[in-house]
Design brief:
By secondary structure, the chain is of the alpha/beta class. It has 2 domains: 138 residues, Rossmann fold, CATH 3.40.50.1860; 113 residues, 3-Layer(aba) Sandwich (Rossmann fold). Helix content is 42%, strand content 16%. The protein contains 12 helices and 10 strands. α10 links the parallel β7 and β8. α1 packs across α11, α1 crosses α12 and α5 crosses α11.
């Protein structure tokens, strides 16, 4: 482990990565952070791999100009589909959501039956399934694509009649699956936690991979920061007002994001 005092860079397709920011703030409260939310081009779930790599290249180049010491790819779709390419776009330590999700789920499940809620691209990649079976061959994973979840979060509809109805319809696909553990495979989804929980039996454990990933990241770069009061920078490519509103919901305080078009 190195104790790097440089900021941690984080990027996502929009506001979802704020759930990753929330965990880093909780577990590494002295760390400086630089966040980029690509809300202008969200959602990423149906994007082609070539687009995801292009977007990642542009965002990483921008974040590297901020002298970051580590990078979190908070987008579950990128982590599951093109992370092997993206991780070579920078020399600083870079982490994605997949391994944290898989490790946390395998440590939690009692019967080896695991569910996954994710974007269409993530589910189609079967990356979680392959990673889980590689570590536990008798385990089973059932993935459900939830394409409406990201737009709901970006709109700020987190726990109302609409979000609960959508969650109920998606989770009906898991009714006969015998899962005891459910992975939230997109960083937007923890913001819909109450709507998701309302559609699930109470005994199913819900995995937010950001909790595990923040702990893993602390083990890589250390938890100390150079500043006694951490500095946070937020950038978006789209709707600044909506992002500022969602930052208050996700983080308990508003941040004045700056608009950057890459």
């Amino acid at each position: 482990m190195i104790d790097d005092s440089r900021p941690i860079g984080i990027f996502d397709s929009g506001v979802g990565g704020l759930t990753m920011v929330r965990q880093i703030m909780a577990q590494m409260p002295c760390k400086n952070l630089v966040y980029f939310g690509d809300s202008l081009r969200a959602p990423y779930g149906s994007r082609r791999p070539e687009e995801l790599m292009q977007f990642s290249r542009e965002i990483i180049d921008f974040l590297m100009m901020k002298d970051i010491g580590a990078l979190v790819v908070a987008c579950g779709t990128i982590s599951a589909t093109v992370f092997d390419v993206v991780k070579n776009m920078t020399d600083v330590p870079i982490v994605g959501m997949l391994d944290a999700a898989v490790d946390a789920a395998l440590e939690t499940t009692r019967n080896g039956h695991i569910g996954l809620l994710a974007t269409a691209g993530t589910v189609a990649s079967r990356a979680h399934e392959k990673a889980i079976i590689a570590k536990r061959p008798d385990a089973k994973l059932v993935g459900v694509a939830c394409p409406l979840f990201v737009p709901l979060v970006e709109e700020g509809w987190l726990d109302n009649d609409v979000s609960r109805l959508v969650a109920q319809k998606y989770l009906e696909q898991l009714t006969d699956s015998r899962i005891d553990t459910l992975i939230l495979g997109c960083t937007h989804y923890p913001l819909l936690l109450e709507s998701i929980k309302a559609a699930l039996p109470a005994d199913i454990s819900i995995i937010d991979p950001a909790v595990r990933l923040a702990a893993d990241l602390a083990g890589i770069v250390g938890s100390k920061g150079e500043e006694s009061i951490p500095q946070y920078e937020f950038y978006v490519s789209g709707n600044k007002d909506k992002f500022d509103e969602m930052s208050y919901i996700a983080l308990g305080r508003s941040f004045d994001a700056k608009v950057v078009r890459l």
